[in-house]
Amino acid sequence: MIAKELPMFGDPAAGRVKEGWLLLARSGQIYGLNGSSVIATKALEGRVISDHVIRIARREQSRVPIGYIHVALSHPRLGRPLVKSLPYGSSVPEIEPADCQNLEIVRLAPRTEEAIADLSKESAALRASADILELLLGDEADLLLQQFVTGEIGTKSMEVNSQSAKPSERKQQGKRAL
To answer: What is the mean pLDDT of each run of 10 residues along the chain (178 residues)?
Structure first.
């Protein structure tokens, strides 16, 4: 069975994401997404992701917060050039997970690193909220378009919905228009 073979690949999470991990794109164009990172939030918890993403988890004995590592590796002069130097290959450059283990990042006072990590985590949470809102708005737009195409609503209803400033107001107006 395939399920029994999965642990042989060395991934105890079986390809699923855990909140708090740092996810690093490991393949693609050097000046594209390759080497860019994001902190996994609850929105990604338990999701299956590609092998083309390196999962970086904080070790229990580590004193370096994952949010600080994210900022340090993303810094345009101190971290990003280090990460961009890792890919090998010409057609589809790749980064090996083992190469990330040898990266040296700039270290600061522990309190400063914690403050930076907290801001980074807050940013990740806000980005996750924005992603969820974008998905909800996309679903709402799909529904409105489907209703318009099938003739359930006319252009007048769509104009009223699009003039509202808040998504919650659009949702209420959409219900009234139907």
So the answer is: 44 83 89 88 88 87 90 92 88 89 90 96 93 93 93 70 54 48
Place of tokens 């991934």: 11
The CA-atom distances, in angstroms, between 126 and each of 17, 37, 45, 174 are 18, 16, 16, 26
pTM over 0.85: no
Query: How far is the C-alpha of 157 from the C-alpha of 44, rounded, in Å?
Result: 35
CA angle 25, 22, 119 (to 5 degrees): 120
**Which domains are seen in the chain, by residue range?**
2-107 (3.90.220.20), 129-177 (no CATH)
Q: Three-state SS for 155?
A: helix
